[in-house]
Specification:
Largest sheet: 6 strands, mixed
Shape: elongated
Structural class: alpha/beta
Number of strands: 14
CATH architecture of the largest domain: 3-Layer(aba) Sandwich
Radius of gyration: 24 Å
CATH superfamily of the largest domain: P-loop containing nucleotide triphosphate hydrolases
Number of domains: 2
Helix content: 25-40%
Length: 305
């Protein structure tokens, strides 16, 4: 059984089609990334998956439970951190967690034990009795995370969980996501942070203008737009593009003070550069080989949006 199965989701707002025939299948156990530029349809899709919005067409199942037919049953299987946090500002950190745990039917002893564990993990033990409205954005987000995971949900859904956070809070959130996944939770994560998706996710879908444009592992997506590798080189003086021309080099692009040479044979390209530099009395200041990045794939697949 898949953790999440969304089929042919469509949602319009007046003349605007926010989500257009989006299907997502997420097997149990992994961390699934959902990427897209602003306005691409990520949050609308998440709201349909979590039952906040009813799709115009399509269906969503959470571990076999239909979200529209049995929304309460489906929501009990999820921990959700929406784009804007849902903490109660006039309650303490601990009270927020205890109240949420009670909503999920946990007994008092379990609620208190779990709240203590989570507050410690998220670095909030010393602030457990402080009113949340006195917290920074990063601390409030950590409370949102705490409320979402208090019942150890089999599915954890996070919409832009680290946007605007300080380094310490961001690291705690990421570590908590990894910990929950190791404990058995399937994770669905939307993010603008490409490196975050690259390091966390086993599978990624990229959405653009309401449609899924690519799905695959980070490494697979890196190769969808350009199968060649590249060599990046800088010289001690300006050079003409003709110097970089070689049968093994597909194209050369100027990147700041460096040249990036795309090639299927980095060894041949490096040897050509060494020969050309020696011939023209140039000094190679730096040289490195690299694969295309997930960020480059993202930009390509979304049309530079």
């Amino acid at each position: 059984m898949d953790a999440i199965e969304a089929k042919n989701l469509r949602k319009t707002f007046g003349p605007v089609t926010a989500v257009d025939d989006v299907s997502i299948t997420i097997p149990e156990g992994g961390i699934f990334g959902f990427l897209g530029p602003n306005g691409a349809g990520k949050t609308t899709t998440i709201r349909m998956i979590t039952g906040v919005l009813i799709p115009d067409t399509g269906s969503v199942q959470i571990l076999g439970t239909d979200v529209n037919r049995d929304p309460l049953g489906a929501k009990l299987k999820m921990g959700v951190i929406p784009e804007n946090g849902t903490v109660y500002s006039d309650l303490t950190a601990e009270q927020n967690i205890l109240v949420t745990a009670k909503f999920f039917g946990m007994d008092r002893a379990s609620r208190e034990q779990r709240a203590g564990e989570i507050l410690t993990r998220l670095g909030l033990e010393e602030r457990r009795n402080d009113i949340v409205r006195t917290f920074s954005k990063g601390m409030r987000q950590r409370i949102s995370i705490a409320c979402a995971i208090v019942h150890s949900p089999p599915i954890l859904i996070l919409d832009e969980p680290t946007t605007g956070l300080d380094v310490y809070s961001r690291r705690l959130v990421i570590d908590t996501v990894r910990h929950m996944n190791e404990q058995g939770s399937t994770v669905l994560l939307t993010t603008h942070n490409i490196e975050e998706a690259n390091s966390l996710c086993s599978t990624i879908s990229i959405i653009n203008k309401g449609k899924i444009v690519a799905t695959g592992s980070p490494e697979k997506l890196k190769k969808t737009f350009d199968t060649s590798r590249y060599v990046e080189v800088s010289f001690d003086q300006p050079v003409k593009p003709a110097l970089l021309s070689s049968p093994g080099i597909a194209r050369a692009e100027l990147w700041g003070d460096k040249w990036r040479l795309f090639t299927d044979d980095p060894d041949l390209a490096v040897k050509h550069l060494a020969f050309a530099a020696e011939r023209d009395h140039l000094k190679i200041v730096s040289i490195a080989t690299s694969n295309p990045t997930l960020e480059e794939a993202f930009v390509h697949l979304t049309g530079g949006a």
